[in-house]
Amino acid sequence: VAPVFVLLEYVTLKKMREIIGWQDGRGDGIFSPGGAISNMYAMLLARYKMFPEVKEKGMSSAPRLVAFTSEHSHFSIKKGAAALGIGTESVICIKADERGKMIPSDLERRIIEAKQKGYVPFFVSATAGTTVYGAFDPLMAIADICKKHDVWMHVDGAWGGSLLMSRKHRWKLNGVERANSM
């Protein structure tokens, strides 16, 4: 219906994926009305990647899923978990340091604890620019933990993602290219 707009969307999203650092701009993308819905889409993707049968059979076909995010993350992570039927109690908040950054050792400890309880860790939301402190979570360390435990890594860049375009401040997002979604 709108071929020129579809083409513009394709080209723009590919360029955005290249800026993130994904090889040859590979991947997919969608324009959304804001960060809250983007975070929920990421959680939806992570759940679908791990348990595609949920699409047809519903949440009863999946084990108890748990997500992890910083205690300083945006409220939309819990909101998304509620909307997707995962539940707000299945979002585990990870301690932040005095500057508002997620503490990777606490993330790993909490992932291990969740596994020991029989839960399935499926999603970690790291934040690139928290709403209160403006903190950037340590993405490289979080990526290492996610890879080790086979957990989807999302970066909420609603506030600070635009620093990917800054020569001076891009370093604050080192490791974002290792995320599964942003």
From TrEMBL:
Which Pfam families does the UniProt record give?
A: Pyridoxal_deC (PF00282)
Q: Where in the cell is it found?
A: Cytoplasm, Cytosol; Cytoplasmic vesicle; Golgi apparatus membrane; Presynaptic cell membrane
Primary location recorded for the protein, binned into one broad class = cytoplasm
Question: Which cellular components does GO assign to this protein?
Answer: cytoplasmic vesicle; cytosol; Golgi membrane; presynaptic membrane
* Topology of this chain in the membrane: Peripheral membrane protein; Lipid-anchor
**GO terms for biological process?**
gamma-aminobutyrate shunt; gamma-aminobutyric acid biosynthetic process
Q: State the needed cofactors, names only.
A: pyridoxal 5'-phosphate
EC number in record: 4.1.1.15
Q: Which GO terms describe its molecular function?
A: glutamate decarboxylase activity; pyridoxal phosphate binding
Keywords from the UniProt entry: Cell membrane, Cell projection, Cytoplasmic vesicle, Decarboxylase, Golgi apparatus, Lipoprotein, Lyase, Membrane, Palmitate, Pyridoxal phosphate, Synapse
Q: How does it assemble?
A: Homodimer.
Q: Which family does it belong to?
A: Belongs to the group II decarboxylase family.
Q: What does this protein do?
A: Catalyzes the production of GABA.
Query: In its UniProt entry, what is this protein called?
Result: Glutamate decarboxylase 2
Q: Which organism is it from?
A: Carassius auratus
Give the gene that encodes this protein: GAD65
